[in-house]
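Following up on my earlier message about flavin-adenine dinucleotide. Here are the inputs again, as you asked, copied directly from the submission form:
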Amino acid sequence: MYDVAVVGCGPVGALAANLAAGAGLRTLVVDREAEPHPLPRAVHLDHEMMRLFQGAGLVERLVPVMRETEGHLHVGADRGVIRYLGTAGRPRPFGWANDYFFYQPELEDVLRDGLARFPHAELRLGVELERLDQDADGVTLALRAGDEPSAVRARFVVACDGARSRVRKALGIPLDDLDFEEPWLVVDAAVDGPVRFPDLWGVPDAADLQRLSVMVCDPARPATVVPGRGNLRRWEFMLLPGEDDAEMMRPERVAALLAPYLEGVPHRIVRAATYRFHGLIAERWRDGRVFLAGDAAHQTPPFFGQGMCHGMRDAANLAWKLDLVARGVAGPALLDTYQPERDPHVRSVVTAAVEAGRYICELDPVRAGARDAALRERARQGAPSTAADLIPPLREGAIARGTPGAGERFVQPRVDTPGGRVLLDDATGQGWRLFARGAAAFGRARAAAGALAPLGVTPVDADALADDGTLARWFDDRGVRAVLVRPDFYVFGTAADDADVLVAAAYDALALRAPASRPAPLVGVSGAVAIHQGEQA
Ligand SMILES: Cc1cc2nc3c(=O)[nH]c(=O)nc-3n(C[C@H](O)[C@H](O)[C@H](O)COP(=O)(O)OP(=O)(O)OC[C@H]3O[C@@H](n4cnc5c(N)ncnc54)[C@H](O)[C@@H]3O)c2cc1C
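Thanks, got it. Here's what our run produced:
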């Protein structure tokens, strides 16, 4: 029996399988296609994905196929800037740049190849899931490879089978429709030289148009121009009412749309295809032992380039929880925290993308003018300044709610080590980490880590880490001395002084099972603290 079967080896399924196998789970991943989808859909990802790839041990292979960029710029009907979410010259609290562009088939190849590192992971391509049946002990998956049917058993299933998810449909899970559907033409081109932009005004000094995702909110034809990896560039053009998909994909029409941007610039069209952009979220993300992730669970208009990123966050959220439950460290109640954590998180960003989509897709020139004025006013009042600010913290689930910073993504400065300056996660190792500041707090953190031994918590003396002051600021801003960080880099909780309180909170919020040698969590904790105090004396 597999611990986890992943259905679909798109980017989300491939990452889910890497993370599950990386945690030591016996993992099967199947995909009905033999090769990754040959054409890119996603082109952008953010720092959080880079940190997940870093954690999965794949980032060194991915950095060479990523192009670092500098955020988003929205231009109004009058060609003046109405919104700037730029990152040029800003700090990188999470270690990586906020925006990267890539070529999706390359990313998927690296993720698939990553599975070969694990003898306990199996990738079966050209294998389609036909149906699944669950019982008290596991799930039976009926598979088919050509004419050959087969069946496998798994304790848990992660359905990453895309927007038309057969699993979601078989489970009868409806989609919550956020009432956004617009047709767009997507064009990828290989371009030898800088893209031309019509005369724009109000462009901030720091903004380099060649390194930004530029949204031209022109009511005559809303369009996006984004940088790509290497010499690739992407354009997205809204189809106007009455326009026909096939007609708009004809080479002459595509060339006419690109002409203002590429006059005199050598280029080659790689593809042109139309898509319907939606805002859809599954009403239930779990049915017993089966979990929906990625596009199977949600779809977003791509205006902030977050669709796949949401799915990768789903994968990271599930991986450590499935691991703890599969190993018997946590009870199955931990898995109930998946949707309460992920759904509001996704909903908030999809809602922001839908809201942006509504103003971007405005075709009435008068209303577009009013929109431009309103957005400029909003910018003056200090609206979010980078796209990273749009991603909210977790507000409930497996966190110590109410403790300062709980649910936030933990920072990742670079720190000095004998081997050179490296990112925090590489310096400390990954998994559960309990950072503490001050000798007394660190001593208590070590005791607390002992009390949380089933989780495998690493205590880290934050004062011993030579960074640029990011860590100290993080602690000081929240008035805390200890922080427990989850394997998906979200903060479980913090303590003003004594990490003890986090032990009790973890046993509760993670449905941890007390090990046989540990009769009751709190007795163990106070005992450990006493030992530590003795050590100090
Ligand atoms: C034009 C466009 C631009 C986008 N831009 C971005 C962006 O910049 N950034 C971003 O983050 N996101 C973006 N997205 C969204 C992103 O492409 C998707 O969110 C992402 O590809 C979803 O990944 P997935 O693994 O969930 O699903 P998919 O990539 O659809 O993979 C599903 C896999 O499941 C397999 N499968 C399906 N059914 C079965 C079955 N029964 N048995 C076995 N296998 C099965 C399929 O063969 C496929 O390989 C964009 C989307 C579009 C359309």
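One observation from looking it over: The pocket of flavin-adenine dinucleotide is lined by residues 7-13, 30-33, 41-45, 128-129, 160-162, 166, 186, 275, 294-295, 302, 305-309, 311 (CB under 6 Å). Hope that helps, and feel free to reply on this thread.
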